[in-house]
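Why run this: before we spend reagent on co-expression, it is cheaper to look at a predicted model of the complex and decide which construct boundaries make sense. The entries below are exactly what would go into the expression plan.
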Amino acid sequence: MIELKYLDVHKCPYCECNELVGEYIETSGVNGGKIRQHINGKRWETRKFSCGYTVQFVPNFNDTTEIHHCKNSNDEQQIQEQVNILKSEVETFATNLGLHHSTIQHMINCIDRKDAISHINQSY
Ligand SMILES: [Zn+2]
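The model came back. Tokens follow.
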């Protein structure tokens, strides 16, 4: 079991979820997978909750930062509503162009970030 020393966030600030799905301490492949340590002796620690909220302790700033949003937060729900409108309009537009169903589905998957091409682009 990993023991996080510096990250003291134990629940999502948006929905108060406290169900953990992962805890990580950053390692470096350069040092053969050893735990990376900042010059101040602290390390990068990450905690992910089942609602998607993910928070990381960043030793450079001696502070925590949100790296993934809670799917229950108002901001994330508003984004999802806008994405649903976008998908509907893309589907209608592509259908009116006469595109094949598989092409339209691919476009929808890219919007949903389910297709490989979308994931590749997302990492840059
Ligand atoms: Zn949450």
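The chain has two domains: 1-71, 74-122. The two ends are 32 Å apart (CA to CA). Bring this page to Monday's planning discussion.
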